[in-house]
Amino acid sequence: MTTTDNKILTSAIETYRRYAGQPTLSDIESCRQDSNDEIVHLTPYFSTMDLVKLEDLTYTRSFTYSLKTRQLLFTSNVTPISKNIVRRLASPDGKYVALVTKETKGEQELQYAQIWHDEHLIFGYEVSDSKISPHGKILPKNDYASFFEWSPDSRRLVFTAEEKRKPLKSYFTADKLDEIGEPASVYRENWGEQMEAFETSVVCIFDLDTKKVQLIENQPNDLYIGQSSWTTNPDELIFVAFRLEPYRLGLIYCENRPSALFKCNWRNNEWKQLTDFDQLCRLFPRHLPKTDNEFVYVQTDIYRAHAQCKRLVLFNTETKQEKILIDRVDNVTYSNADPFRAEWDTQFKGLYMSPPRLGYSSDGRYLLLPSYYVVHEMFLNVVDYRTPFRLYVFDLKSLSKKVKDPNDWYLITEHEFKTEEKNRIEWNVDRFFS
C-alpha cells in the first residue's frame, strides 16, 4: 500500500470516528418545578457509539431554564445510563420518577419496578412476584407497541406489559413439577421487524394513592393495545388498538394498517370502541388539555404508501364526530426554481410526523407539530454543523370559524443555529410549554 493510500485510509477512518461519535437526541423529559412558576427542568437523553467496545451508549444531562429571564440556570454533568434500565420517566410535576430495571439471575431475566419521590424509594416490587404484580415483563419503549405514561396530575402511571406467565424452568432445575412453564422451544408469535420483544400486551395502572398495581380487565383478547393518551378525566384513557390477525408484520414501518380507537375507564374496567377497523389507520392520540371529550390524532389511508402524508383529525368522544384539521397535501407547487430557498422553504408540505406528547401550549390553544422534511435538512447540514429548526403552529380556536382561513398555519420561527449566533438568538417559547 502506497503512502498516498495510507493517508486516504487514515483520513477515512478519522472521518468515520468523528461522525460516528456525534451524539443523537433520542428522548427528552420536561417538567415545571411548580404550576405557577417560571422554572423548567429539561432532561434530554443522547445516544452515541463506543468505537472501542463496539456498542451503543446512552447518556443524559439535566438543564434548568428560567422562562422569565430566559437564562440557563443550571447544567449537570454527563451521566451514563445503565443498559439495565428498561424504563425511566419523571412525573409532570417533577416530584416522582418511575423506574424499571432488569438483571439476569441464572436462566432468568428479572425486572424490578420502582417509584421514587425525590431521593426516597417509596414503592417497589419484583415483576415476577405474583402476590404484587398482576402482569409479566414491562415492555421496553416503542412508539407503536408500548407506552409508559404518567397522568397529568402525576398520581397514576399507565403502562403495557406482557401477560403473566410461569417462568421458563427446565425439568432438571425446577423444584416442583408445577413450576415447569412452557418449553423454551415453543414458538410465540411476535411483531417482527426489530420488535421481537413484543408478543402480547396487557394494560396496567399504578395508583400512587393506594400504592397498588391494577390490571385493566375486559381488554379485547383479539387486539393489541399499542398507544395511549390520558384524558382530562383522571379515570379515562384513549387507546389505539391493532388486530392480531391475519398478520402482525408491518407495524413499526407501516403506518397504513387498520387500527381503531378505544376509550377506557380503568376504575370500572369499561371499554368503549370509538371507531371501526375500516379503511383508515389511526395513530398518536393527543387529548386536548383544556377541553373535555376531545382529542386529536393522526390519520392515514390503509394499504397506501408507508410514509404517506397524514391528516390531523379532531375527534369528539361523546358524538363520535370527526373534523379534519389538516388534510393531506398530495402535491406541492414550487413557484421558484431553486428548491432550497425562499418560497420553497416557507410552503407547508404536509404532515408526516407524529405530534409530540407535550405539543400543546399551556392555554391549550396552540399545537406544535414537526415537519418531516426538516429532518432531511438536518441530515444534509450535519457536515457543516448547522441544525435548522422550523415549527408550524395550528390555532385550534379557528375551528369555530364558519370560513376556514387558509393562513391558520403560519411559520413562527425559521433559524439556522450557528456557533457564532448562539448567544444572540431571540426566540419566544414561553407559551409553548405545557
From TrEMBL:
<feature type="domain" description="Acylamino-acid-releasing enzyme N-terminal">
    <location>
        <begin position="85"/>
        <end position="266"/>
    </location>
</feature>
<keyword id="KW-0378">Hydrolase</keyword>
<dbReference type="Pfam" id="PF19283">
    <property type="entry name" value="APEH_N"/>
</dbReference>
<dbReference type="InterPro" id="IPR045550">
    <property type="entry name" value="AARE_N"/>
</dbReference>
<comment type="similarity">
    <text>Belongs to the peptidase S9C family.</text>
</comment>
<protein>
    <recommendedName>
        <fullName>Acylamino-acid-releasing enzyme N-terminal domain-containing protein</fullName>
    </recommendedName>
</protein>
<dbReference type="GO" id="GO:0004252">
    <property type="term" value="F:serine-type endopeptidase activity"/>
</dbReference>
